[in-house]
Amino acid sequence: MLKYKVGDKVVVISGKDKGREGSIERIYPKKGVAIVSDVNIYKKHVKKALARDGKGGIYEIPRPIDLSKLMVVDSKSSKPTRIGFKVEGGKKLRISKKSGVIVDKK
Predict the structure, then answer these.
(1) Which residue from 38, 44, 67, 84 puts its CA 20 to 30 A from 59's CA?
(2) How many Å apart are CA 54 and CA 90, to the nearest integer?
(3) Where are the domains of the chain?
């Protein structure tokens, strides 16, 4: 089970986007990377003939960022926190290490 899920609010802890927050849009578990909204944005130059809409230009695209550079934001304190696991009623739940609040959405 991964410590991160789609929709989690995360903060970048290292790299060029250090300190920026966003929510996880997609996760690639085999590669260990995720696409986070408004983080790790790059510009791509596309020729007119290769563009889907027939218009060339410079497009901003999000690139995947390594999961080791992300931390989940605690809902109680709004600060980065580590994630732990707890078994309750036969279900494995994710909990915040700082506040002990359950991170999983019901």
Answers:
(1) 67
(2) 53
(3) 9-75
Report CA Rg, the chain: 17
Do residues 7 and 24 lie in contact, with contact meaning Cβ atoms separated by under 8 Å?
yes
pLDDT in tens, 4-14: 999 999 999 99
Give the percent of the chain with pLDDT over 70.
Answer: 97
Q: What is the DSSP string of 16-63?
A: TTTT-EEEEEEEETTTTEEEETTSSEEEEEE-TTT-TTS--EEEEEE-
Average pLDDT over residues 57-72: 94
Instruction: Please give the CATH topology (third level) of the domain spanning 9-75.
Output: SH3 type barrels. (2.30.30)
Query: Is the CB of residue 76 less than 8 Å from the CB of residue 95?
Result: no
